[in-house]
């Protein structure tokens, strides 16, 4: 979701709350919260009231068992498997999972809170722009960041827990059919603007699919890298068309002029690229579709070495819903999703599949991952979706596509 109405809230976002913060250290937006929200945060020991020296896990577990339940709103049905493992470890705490499409989750969650109904304890959802720019800070603060110390020690970069804990990174690569090519058929994003790729690139409609829109918006964000890549591809400096703002938009215009094939899902991208004899390339589909190759359903493979980058990183966040009735059980659930030294995967295991990663150092690659690649080895090849840029620029990119795309 990209909504211009609350852009001003982005300026309020600050870093993560320090677990050792004194109660007197309040963020700039604290007084914008209703007094009931502040009182709840104090009782839940969140935000400026986080425990000095870090969480007291023995006390948290005791209180969680007293609460007896944790309600999880999840954009993934796999939450049921995670819940089952959590129950096995903590038999006194019932997990109530509510799997929904992310758009339904956001709508239900927002509607409930607006009505003063606080059903959810834990939120597991993506939609970076909305989560960070609208729900993390006032005027409508719906989610609170809770970062177990284990995550601060083991996440590959602080940006993956600041300002909101990222529990899953999903890569959106460029796919090709290895049965049709002896090697990856492109090495530069500008290759896709060349005549030989006319009507041979599959992508979801960015005016409809938010993940495709995020993909092309990230292209636009990295205009300087695109300008350099153009020089490497064509041996000359890029000249912008009249009215085109930068190299990112120029790539997008040239790409659209090359008549990409619009499909209605990343399933269709995978099926079109992976069909027998296909010589198409697919953009913005999720890396997790590679599991279909392992199942023999299609034949697709990611292209890793592309200038200036090979795709994007999409994030799934994990946080505590405001006015949670079971905040200690919520903290315990988040800790088990983060994992520990003996069990770094933890109850995250249903999402530990090719193309989906927990942003943790030293974790084993998902079974079946091509070439045994880890997130640490791939992260530099994929640009992260920037929630602020997508929030402020996404509508402009969508409008640019609408005006310039000709079927």
Describe the protein in words:
The chain is built from 14 helices and 13 strands. It is α/β, with parallel strands linked by helices and 407 residues long. It has 2 domains: 4-170 and 314-373, 3-Layer(aba) Sandwich (D-Maltodextrin-Binding Protein, domain 2), CATH 3.40.190.10; 174-309 and 389-404, D-Maltodextrin-Binding Protein, domain 2, CATH 3.40.190. Strands 1, 2, 3, 4, 5, 11, 12 and 13 form an 8-stranded mixed β-sheet that branches. A 5-stranded mixed β-sheet has the order 8-7-9-6-10, covered by helices on one side. The longest helix has 18 residues, at 387-404. It starts with 34 loop residues before the first helix and ends with a helix. Mean pLDDT is 92; it is low at 1-23.
Key phrases:
407 residues, alpha/beta, D-Maltodextrin-Binding Protein, domain 2, 2 domains, eight-stranded mixed sheet, five-stranded mixed sheet, 14 helices, 13 strands, globular
SSE diagram, text form:
Elements: H1 35-44, H2 57-67, E1 69-74, H3 79-89, E2 94-99, H4 102-114, E3 122-125, H5 128-135, E4 143-144, H6 149-154, E5 166-172, E6 174-176, E7 201-204, H7 210-221, H8 223-234, H9 247-257, E8 261-263, H10 266-274, E9 281-283, H11 291-294, E10 301-302, E11 311-321, H12 327-338, E12 356-357, H13 375-378, E13 382-384, H14 387-404
Kindly provide the radius of gyration, computed on alpha-carbon positions and rounded to a whole number of angstroms.
Answer: 22 Å
Shape: globular
Structural class: alpha/beta
Q: What's the CATH C level of the largest domain?
A: Alpha Beta
Terminus-to-terminus distance = 25 Å
The CATH homologous superfamily of the largest domain corresponds to Periplasmic binding protein-like II
Poorly predicted spans = 1-23
Helix content, binned percent = 25-40%
